[in-house]
Amino acid sequence: MTKVIGLTGGIGSGKTIVCNVFKHLGIPIYDADIESKKLVNSSMEIRKKLISLYGNFIYLNNRKINSKKLSKIIFNNKVDLEKVNKIIHPVVLNDFREWLVKHGKSKYVILEAAILFESGAFKITDVTTLIYSPENLRISRVVERDNVSEKDVFLRIKNQISDDEKKKLVDYIIINDDKEFILPQILKLHKVFNK
Q: Could you tell me the pTM of the whole model?
């Protein structure tokens, strides 16, 4: 039976780096954030529901989501964020289940999701892991990476469960604070997950 490892961490925590190491170790990874962005454009179910909520303008003429408009709506209003999440998350979870069938021969797979707990995706995992980075470090990484303001990053962080809360919910923690080496931490977990 393939184990499902839920991997989470706030924006700028280093999920991409950690996932790249696991990929190098041959572990299949389902990136819920990337897949949800694809599904927002390809799923007719999501499209119909978003249009009925916000009108046709929520999609551009090329039939792609108007991500600037959608971001403006959901990052400024918790009620709208919840409505959009209730439309997208069930479709993403179904997509993950189909993906999991294709990777059923693996000892374990990783479900990577920034909002693992907020979306309810943790319910289909066997084990959960948090990549922890101090908030000030996460903000400076994202400001540099995405060329956005600190205020924009802080707004996104505010819409997620705090790391202190997540620490209480997860089974394992990878510390990515630019002091601790992350590779030994990942290799240690790889041994644990492979049992």
A: 0.90
